[in-house]
Design a protein that fits this description.
The protein is built from 18 helices and no strands. With 455 residues, the chain is mainly α. It has 3 domains: 178 residues, Growth Hormone, Chain: A (Up-down Bundle); 54 residues; 201 residues, Up-down Bundle (Growth Hormone, Chain: A), CATH 1.20.1250. It is globular and about 60 Å long.
Length: 455
C-alpha cells in the first residue's frame, strides 16, 4: 500500500464500515431490549418477534434492489439517502408509544438499512484496487460482524442505565459522523450507463417474503386453518416463486441466478443459510432468556456475549490467513461443528442458574467456532466470483444471511414450544446445534479449493 493511498483507503473503509455497522448493530442491539420493550408497550411474544422480523424483512427483501439502485444512481447518493432514512427511522423507533407504531418504524429502519450495506461495499470495490481492496473488504467484514456481536452489550447498557429507547436514538451519532466523512471523500459518483432496476422483481420479493413470514409468526395464535394464515402463506409462496422465475428472464435482475453456477458460491450461500439461522436463533434466545428466565439485568445479558465477540476479533485474522493458505473448506467445516458443540453445552443451564459454569463454557466454545468460520466463509464466497461482480455477490450473500435470521425467528414459537422458559431454551439450543451441524456438513461436501477465480 503506497503512502499516498493510505489516507484515502482509510477514509473509504471508515465510511463503508460505519454505514454498514449501523445496520448490522441495530439488528442485534434489539435482542436485549426486547423484554423492556414488551414490558412498556405490551403485545407479548408476537411483538418481540415482529420487532425483530419487521426490520429483517425489509432489510433482506430490499437489499438486492438497493444494489441495483446503487449502480443506477450512484453509490454516494444512495448511501446518503440510506443514512438519512436510517437516522429518521431510528428516531421514530425511539419515540414509539405502541407496538404497531414500533413495528412500522422498525420496518422503515430495515428498508433504509438495506441501502447502506450494498452501497458501502460497492464503494470499496469501485474505489479501491488490488491488495487495498482485499484488505478493505476484510476490515469491512470484521467491523460489521463485530458490530453485530457488540450490539447486545450496548443495548444492555442503554436499557439499564437510561431506557431501551436510547438504544435506537444513539444511531443518530454514527449516521451524522458518516455523512460528514462522505463530504471529505474526494472524487465523484460513478454510475453504470447500462444499469437498470427490476422494480417488479423487488415488489414480488418483498410481498412474497412478507406473506410467508406473517403466516409463520401469527400461526400459533390463529392456527393453520384460519384464512388469515393460509391465504397470506399461499400468496407469499406464489409471489416468491414468481420472483425467482422473473430473475431468469429480467434484463436487469436483482438476483442474478448466473452467480450460482459457481460451485463454491452456491455452496457457501447454502452453508450461510444454516449458519446464520443458527446465529440469529442463538442471539435472540440467549439475550431474552438471560433476562426473563435467569433474571439478569440487560447489561449483564449483553456482557454475557462478550467472550464470543473477543474470540471472533482475535481469531478472524488467523482464520483468514489459514483459509488463504489451505482453502476455506476445513475451517468452514470445523467452525460450525465447534459452534454446535458450544450450543449443546448450553444444555447445562438449569433452574439453579450459574453463568460461570452453565453459560460461559458454551459461549467460549461458540466463539472459537465463530472466529474460525466467518472470515473463511466470506473469503470463499467472494473468491468464487470475479471482482467486477463482488458487490452484487456480497449483497446476495448478505440477503441470504438476513433471510435466514428472518425465517428462524418466524419459527420461534414452534421451536421453544410457545414460551421461552427453561425447556424452550434447551429446545432452541438443540435446534441451533442441528443447524450448525448441517452448515458444517454442507461446507465439507460442497466446497472445493480453487486455484483461480471462477464464474
Amino acid at each position: 500500500m503506497t503512502r499516498s493511498s493510505t489516507p484515502r483507503t482509510a477514509l473509504v473503509v471508515a465510511i463503508a464500515s460505519l454505514a454498514s455497522s449501523a445496520a448490522f448493530l441495530d439488528s442485534t442491539i434489539v435482542n436485549v431490549a426486547l423484554p423492556a420493550i414488551e414490558r412498556e408497550l405490551g403485545g407479548g411474544l408476537a411483538t418481540q418477534q415482529w420487532a425483530v422480523d419487521a426490520y429483517l424483512l425489509t432489510l433482506s427483501s430490499l437489499i438486492l434492489l438497493a444494489g441495483s439502485v446503487s449502480d443506477s444512481y450512484g453509490r454516494l447518493l444512495v448511501l446518503r439517502i440510506g443514512l438519512i432514512g436510517f437516522g429518521l427511522a431510528s428516531i421514530a423507533v425511539g419515540l414509539a408509544q405502541d407496538p404497531l407504531f414500533l413495528i412500522a418504524a422498525r420496518a422503515a429502519q430495515g428498508a433504509a438499512g438495506a441501502f447502506l450495506v450494498p452501497s458501502s461495499l460497492a464503494l470499496i470495490t469501485s474505489l479501491l484496487r488490488g491488495h487495498e481492496r482485499s484488505r478493505a473488504i476484510g476490515l469491512w467484514t470484521a467491523f460489521t460482524t463485530g458490530a453485530s456481536l457488540v450490539g447486545p452489550l450496548l443495548g444492555g447498557l442503554f436499557v439499564d442505565l437510561l431506557s431501551w429507547r436510547y438504544a435506537f436514538l444513539i444511531n443518530v451519532l454514527p449516521v451524522a459522523v458518516t455523512l460528514w466523512l462522505v463530504t471529505r471523500l474526494p472524487g465523484y459518483d460513478e454510475r453504470r450507463a447500462d444499469a437498470g432496476i427490476d422494480w417488479l422483481g423487488a415488489l414480488l420479493c418483498t410481498a412474497g417474503l412478507g406473506g410467508m413470514v406473517f403466516a409463520l409468526i401469527e400461526q400459533p395464535n390463529l392456527g393453520w386453518g384460519s384464512p388469515a394464515i393460509w391465504m397470506p402463506l399461499a400468496a407469499g409462496v406464489v409471489m416468491f416463486a414468481a420472483f425467482l422465475q422473473r430473475q431468469r428472464t429480467a434484463q436487469h435482475p436483482i438476483l442474478p441466478l448466473a452467480l450460482f453456477r459457481a460451485r463454491n458460491y452456491w455452496t457457501g450461500n447454502l452453508a450461510t443459510l444454516f449458519v446464520y439461522a443458527a446465529l440469529s436463533l442463538n442471539g435472540f434466545v440467549v439475550g431474552v432468556y438471560l433476562q426473563q428466565g435467569a433474571g439478569l439485568s440487560a447489561t449483564l445479558a449483553g456482557l454475557a456475549s462478550l467472550p464470543t465477540t473477543v474470540l471472533l476479533i482475535a481469531l478472524s485474522p488467523w482464520a483468514g490467513s489459514l483459509a488463504e493458505r489451505f482453502g476455506g473448506r476445513l475451517l468452514m467445516t470445523v467452525g460450525p461443528l465447534v459452534m454446535a458443540g458450544g450450543a449443546l453445552l448450553l444444555l447445562l443451564v438449569d433452574d439453579s442458574f450459574d453463568y460461570w459454569w452453565q453459560v460461559l463454557p458454551g459461549l467460549v466454545v461458540f466463539g472459537l467456532g465463530l472466529g474460525a468460520t466467518v472470515s473463511p466463509l466470506t473469503a470463499t464466497i467472494l473468491g468464487a466470483i470475479d471482482a467486477e461482480r463482488s458487490g452484487i455477490a456480497s449483497a446476495v450473500n448478505n440477503a441470504v444471511a438476513r433471510v435466514a435470521g428472518l425465517v428462524i425467528i418466524a419459527f420461534l414459537a414452534p421451536i421453544v414450544g410457545g414460551a421461552l422458559d427453561l425447556d424452550g431454551f434447551h429446545r432452541s439450543a438443540l435446534v441451533t446445534a442441528a443447524l450448525m451441524t448441517a452448515g458444517g456438513i454442507i461446507a465439507f461436501t460442497g466446497i472445493r479449493r480453487e486455484r483461480s477465480t471462477t464464474a
